[in-house]
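I am writing to request your help with a piece of structural work I have in hand. Here, with my thanks, is the record as I have it:
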Amino acid sequence: MFHIFCALPCEAEPLIQHFKLTELKQFELFRIYQSKDKHISLTITGVGKINAASAICYHHACINTHPADGWLNIGVAGHKNIPVGEVRLINKITDHQNGACWYPQILFDSAVGSEALITLNKPSENYQDSLFDMEASAFYQMAIRLGTAELIHVLKVISDNADQSTSTVNAANVKKMIAAQTTTINKLILALKPFSDELANTLSEPEHYQDIIGQWHCTQSERIKLCQLLRRWSVRCSDQDLIQTLAKLKTAKQIINTLYEKINNSEFVIHD
């Protein structure tokens, strides 16, 4: 699943229409939308860092996000001289208030240029060579606690610059700017999807895990070790009958010790 966060309704509306999202009326603190197949969700956070951080926590609790999900902050931002309407991925986020920095991991090919961004506490027309916004640092700081760095990104459309200040920005213009970039946003999601799918597969429960914990009592630490060992078993000992190997064992500790010994004593061969 991919979770999109927009500060303003005018930023969100083109995406709601494009992805055919429906509002989830049972959630009232923030407006949350979701696609029919539940692959895309979107929350309107409101302006500012506090709203952004609160919305992400609320979204996580309501949607039950997964570590393999993608997290996207999409909206508008100002810049000194990048033309209005152009789009940029963010490669560095700085919180102007405390100087904290984050570096989104752009590990995929992208036709979109990347720039640094500074998150401010209030609007400014003191344009610099970095983008300006009011939410990205809070978005990233919270999302990194819930997701995976390679799947957390900020994409901004330039809404104002030194030649066209914030006085020229209105909701109608913002809608048009975001709507013009839906193809770019689609490409970003498609670029991230293989990373998300691979991580989801890695984090999924290995084969026979439920069979084992249903038959033998396992503590939480034993369950974690069991998952790790079963994943290794599937690579190193896939030609052996796991159930038969464990059939006569009495405790989870015996299972873990047996798996560990079998795996470490197995011959590891890479086949052509």
User: Anything to note?
Assistant: The chain has nine helices and ten strands. The chain has a mean pLDDT of 92. The two ends are 34 Å apart (CA to CA). The longest helix spans residues 182-203.
